[in-house]
Description:
- 27% of the residues lie in helices and 25% in strands.
- The chain is an alpha/beta fold.
- The strands form four sheets. A seven-stranded parallel beta sheet has the order 7-11-6-1-4-5-12, sandwiched between helices. Strands 14-13-15-16-17 form a five-stranded parallel beta sheet.
- Helix 3 (74-88) packs across helix 4 and helix 5 packs parallel to helix 8 (306-319).
Amino acid sequence: MSNIIVLAEQQDGKLANATLNAIGAAKQLAGFVGGGFSVAVAGNGVGAVAEALAGYGAEKVYLAEDPALEKYTAQAYAQALHSAAVASGAKFVVAAATSIGKDCVPRVAARLDAGMASDVIRIAEGPVYTRPMWAGSVLGRVKVNTDIQVLTVRPTEFEKAQASGGASPVESIDAGVDAGSLRMKYVGLDAAESDRPALTDADVVISGGRGLKDPKNFALVEKLADLLGGAVGATRAVVDAGWVPNDWQVGQTGKVVAPKLYIAVGISGAIQHLAGMKGSKTIVAINKDPDAPIFGVADYGLVADLFDVVPELTEKLAAR
């Protein structure tokens, strides 16, 4: 049996990209603890997802299907993924630290009576897990002493696994969902529809903050993002003010991103926001306050009025 199992994430039959980062982390972990890895996917009618996962070098792909798993609820999915973890006999359980991962995986750990390290950014011999604390201002090194260890990994810190070209066997298992014990039910999803790339998948992210002064001025950010084929982000302050959808929030209590290019427009750089974007490959900050903390993490800083700079930048980029 595999020593490690990766809990895959899917929504509406589509594999979440972050799962590939989790597989990358599992392969890294296998280098320290030995053995191979397996993958588990839960849902209803998600055989195609299992087949897609079969190409990444797993010893086996466990498929747990049940009508109760048609739409995501933490209780039902935790039961199914726990069943897969038990079936695999794995001593290490790995998942991506996404919104769903953070919601579901601790429940799996509790069912396994396992210790857990969350939001892991580095794995070392031991194994010892490094994770950020205090909004990323402190890095803690964690060792888990239980027989089974569970960890969620920050997708931005691990390379995506590449398809190996092989084909792992897919084994269907009893999901073990006790419908009578479920106290949650899926009612609906109120999601913002957009043609832009997902915030966590985009190569370019343009984010706006309170320096934009008015929600109507977010059009400046959106126009630049569309020109660069990027996603739009925002600080918690403007999300809480109702200027933009909650789905756009970048930061400790929002989404953690690490695009190739991150442009911060009118963002001062509160520590909670920095925790969600300082892993970006190149950071550009535009702010008229020369003492703004954002300049402390920026690769390029422009001390100027965004209302002059952003339209000019957009115009010149469009001309190229």
